[in-house]
Amino acid sequence: MLLQLIFSAIFLYYLQRLFFYLKGVYRKYIFIAKIPGPPGKFLLGNALDIGDTSFSFSAALLRWADEERAKGHNLMRVWVGFRPLIIPLNGEALKPILDSTEELTKGDDYDLFIPWLGLGLLISTNGKWKSRRRMLTPTFHFAMLDGYVEKMDKHSKILVDILHDKTGKELDIYPYVKRCALDIICDTAMGTELDAQHDPNDPYVLAVGEFNQLAREQSFVWYNWIPGVWRFTKRSDEVRVLDTMTGFTKKVIADRISQHQSGELNFDGDVKGKRKAFLDMLIEMREANALSDEDIREEVDTFMFEGHDTTSSGIAWILWCLATNPEVQQKACQEVSAVFGDSDRSITVEDLKGMPYLEKVIKETLRIFPAVPQVQRKVLNDFKNGDYIIPAGTDIMITMLLVHHNSKAFPDHWKFDPERFDVDKAASRHAYDYVPFSAGVRNCIGQRFALYEEKLVVAWILRRFSLHTDRPMLSNTCGAETVLRPLLGVPVTLRSR
Ligand code: HEM
Q: Which co-factor is required (predicted)?
């Protein structure tokens, strides 16, 4: 009898939990069903149209966004199986989301990066994020950028010297740019010369490439979503790659700390001709007990990750747009020649504050092909957006790729037209119609660094080479992964100037 009572109580308890769970699901479904979006299939939602590559995913999203905007909608809903994604389609719908500081947190997809980046600036939330952001903002101050630019210049010169032997035949320039960006971030973030450009088989360089490949498989290959599959098939590779990456940064940090302690490195007034790296500032914060060794590791790895994949995708797309738009390339090249002539001198911060046409080329590239194509937020409390309620627990996918292809803000939106960024034209758009670096409190802390790096590397390439291809710009379709990937890479022929 007692046993019967216990079983009945347990049964009722679970029945009640199931009831509340289903009630929550039903409530969520009712709100989401009101949000417009492409019709889905039973159980699968829109998964079949999305396909299993980032390229089919991006193509489907772009098509649906055009259809929904044509019906006058600002917000769209897509079902990936049982998982609804809510997607703002223009600046007006995006603004309340990016400006919110209370109702939203980072989405579930960031969890993929926690084993590598820990709860560093990109992933942390609330109080931890606020204090870290305050602490790290000065590391991107103008005075620091001067030192970073010297390092960018050094590694860009190496890039153009390497490319000098590759002229006259088609090559995919993307991997070269990527290794240059990796050398730049390693030197600026950690004060360490990785020299990936001369040693592409360095274990750290290979591990970064392998991690990106694993992240792609985990996100886009559907059977990896089945609980347990990843753990049994790929987890050991992931652990090996993570060990290589974090092992490398831990060693660099430990060496640098001991150099600080022994007095070998002393940056008061830039002694010994050395420039402070990002890591040196973190070590100074450690000395003031503001950061632990693991805190430093998280932030260094966050900057290593955020600071090279993004800029290399950005530069790759700029080079592609220049090669496929020769008249734009010629104008940019004339501007660069007017600044540097035939000299081989270094590029300085002062130079980077100029070259306004090249800047517009960079902005237009980041519009058509945003290097970070999407970010994610999770709704903590029901969130009103226009006429709709986005229920608590739902993921919002902020897709720069879609927002930037809104023909109301950018007529003829697939046309490459740097003049769109003339000051008077930009002023007539909604401020959030163009958000390559996101906006609001959680915008990109490294955006000035990124724009300097992109301008500097591209200026060096234009000083030395012209870029050619017979293919049209849009033959290279884009895949929205962690960064925006060109299907064909960047296949161009370089000719020496
Ligand atoms: C073209 C290059 C870049 C683009 C397009 C870009 C874009 C973005 C975007 C869209 C975000 C918001 C992420 C989110 O909300 O989840 C972000 C955040 C961030 N970016 Fe960048 N980024 C670039 C380069 C860089 C560089 C060079 C660095 C560092 C050196 C950097 C460091 C960061 C960090 C640490 C965050 C997190 C900021 C926070 O949450 O407070 N980024 N970036």
A: heme
Q: How many CA atoms lie within 13 A of 72 on its CB side?
A: 2
ipTM reported for the complex surpasses 0.95: yes
Predicted pLDDT at 339: 97
- Each residue's pLDDT tens digit, 199-239: 888 888 888 888 888 887 887 777 887 888 888 888 889 89
Q: Which of 114, 124, 298, 306 to mutate to test the pocket of ligand 1 (most atoms within 8 A of CB)?
A: 306
Q: Whose CA is nearest to atom 42 of ligand 1?
A: 446
Q: Which atom of ligand 1 is nearest to the CA of 133?
A: 41
333 is annotated as contributing to ligand binding: no
Give pLDDT tens digits for 109-145.
Answer: 888 889 889 999 999 988 889 999 998 898 888 777 8
Q: With a 6 A CB cut-off, is 369 part of the ligand 1 pocket?
A: no
